Amino acid sequence: MDGMSLLTITVLAVFVGFEVVSKVSSTLHTPLMSGANAIHGIILVGAIIVAGQAADPWVLAVALLAVVLATANLVGGFVVTDRMLHMFHARKQVARKEGAGKVEGR
Amino acid sequence: MSLLDPVWTSLLYLAAAVFFILALRGLSSPRTARRGNLLGAFGALIAVVTVFLSSRLENIPWILAAIVVGSAVAAPVARRVKMTQMPQLVALFNGVGGGAAALVALLELSHTDDPWVRLAIVFTLLVGAVSFAGSGVTFAKLQELMTTRPVVFKGLPAVMGAVLLAAVAAGVAVILTGSGVLAVLLLALGLAAGILLVLPVGGADVPIVISLLNAFTGLAVAASGVVLGNVLLVVAGTLVGASGTILTRAMAAAMGRSVAGILFGAFRGGSTAGSMAVSERPVRSSSAEDVAVLLGYAQRVIIVPGYGLAVAQGQHTAAELALALEARGIEVDFAIHPVAGRMPGHMNVLLAEANVPYESLKEMGEINPQFKTADVALVVGANDVVNPAAKTSSGSPIYGMPILEVADARQVVFLKRSMRPGFAGIENDLLYEPQTSLLFGDAKDSLAQVLGAVKTL
Lengths: 106, 457
What we know:
heterodimer; A: 0% strand; B: 2 domains; 6 strands; 59% helix
């Protein structure tokens, strides 16, 4: 891909990034940060490419370390975000008055 | 072998990028947030399957084993972590992502002699390393493995300046020579810069720094996409970099601070370095029974939860107390400061965990005028977010931060562990006011005692 198209895509992505989160309430700051954090775990794709091209054992070792780290970022990020949001969701199903003084843990 | 031709590969990467955009948009609204996150995970799955099908890869068994190891470590931790410790886990995940980007760039150096690609490599190395080391320090601060107070030493700005200059010099040298040794040196300088960047940041500002480093990792991933010629990495990294920047500014605004002030405040000596001195002035301490009477015969109670409630795991007891009061016909609301807890929105997550209904959680702008009509403001484990010093004393480190106006309530009750100042390390004059009473002890124990006493009224 030539440099100009790459620059075009980057600039457009910057504006999309600004737009999609510009109106978020402070309630969702934490999950949004956590979700964005998971998305950059996609560096896993880069780590896989590098590991797949490695011929030297040392290069492979470093690349595999990158794969482990990137996977942790990607998988852990989505799982922890889902857990946070699950709590927001669960709230709707619990009719609070029915609890009759007893509030269950999650 | 490659099963997919380049057109299909591009189309699948495009699909993944669209899913990421939908994910961020979904996460911006409470109704669609969970689905948004799942869309993001689905996009990531598409991308990972695509890279296996489209590239000529060696070492596939090794790679799969590494993915299994990474998942096996991260998923159980993410599933089991206490919600109070979640901010540092996010910091940790962010750091390892930055580290992975830096390693990818390091290994690509020998595959190119294009100076522009080398520039992207230098950028990824430096920013990825800053994010990795900086996140490590934020983790240590939040986990209280080290002091949460700003760490400053004489000559810190000079050391930081020297490290950055050396990093620029090493970066230029790497671009000109492509030397691997210099690249490793650059990596080391990036790690040092990351540590020096976060050390002087005071505890209360750490969440904003996590968000900033999150944006940094996004930029590092975008640059690594340039290095590898992979459009998906460019788009996803840029999205996170851009949205992370906006989010960082929004968080800083919620605390009435500027990002530059947070990062460089300590250099100028104006950061959150309050005193640990405990005043000798008298306070009115009361018993759980007294507090129960105050609450039980009120008409309107506003509970102000803070991090102390979260560390004591008292959110469930607080929810029970609210139920018991409502059973007596008392109107109860929770007033949530934007930065209550350790991250913006953290307190909402914790109270949602305790099944407090969404309608009872009031944001600051909405609840502040209502304190005037409240009989009792019950402040549980919060301090800085209700400290009038933020409004009245221009010399205070938290001056300018919007606060919850609990002083307007007829009575103010603090449940506190001790007279020790809050996370920002500043004394709270409200504690000494005549309408204020204090109940000392662990937030959960105190709440349980008050709850027991309310039930016997």
